[in-house]
Amino acid sequence: MTKVLQYHFNPPFKRIQGKLFWRNIQAPAWLKKKNQNYYFDGLCFRPANSKEKALGFLCLLTEMPDANPEETEIISLLTKIIQKEYYRFSYPNPSDCFKWALEQGNRFLNRQLKNNNIGWLNKLNLAAFAIRPNLSINLAKIGNVRCMLFTNGEIFDLSQSLSQEAPSFKSFSDTIEGSVQNRDKILLLNQKLFEAFNEEEIFRWLLLAEKPKEVKNVFRQKKDILRQSFGVCLLVLAQNKKWLFWPF
Q1: Domains defined along the chain, listed by start
Q2: What pLDDT does residue 224 have?
């Protein structure tokens, strides 16, 4: 059965009366202060009924350095639009539903541009990934987000296959469409985590992990370095049977 594992590293709770509350009190104080306005989140949506079953999972990863409350609210609205439009099932081909959802997301971003609400766009990093019961996939991104594919003992950076958006306006400008195999793994993560994972050879250990418990053990062994890392990752363990979402 396909599983989606979600991990947040040093996420803040929420700002209450100007004070930021942290989940991980073991993170160094200087690091918390440096990243006090650093916003990131990982979302995983699954079919709500039998009609939506063919659309499978939709995973969204968002990140914005130095984000204010208004900007985080705009990001939340954007992700809700993409989710709603993807599961609207406007087209018989699930891949077309994905492209439709991104088109509606781009229209929302364009409205922000027309309203001169554009300062935050240059800071936005967002990945959208969909995987269906037959293991067909779609991937798109805005900004600097990574998507790693673990397959047949090798690791590929799928995000490098996506063209970069025009520098004057960030939007979804390209998509990847294809399929994965049973027991493949797909990892979405922000750039800060990518650098930490790469330096500590965490990708090599994740390549060998097959079960959620094994993945958790990898992160536990690297807990000292991960305490100083900020970000979120979504790990998809692909199998074309039943579906489960595993939050961690």
Answers
A1: 2-247 (3.60.40.10)
A2: 87
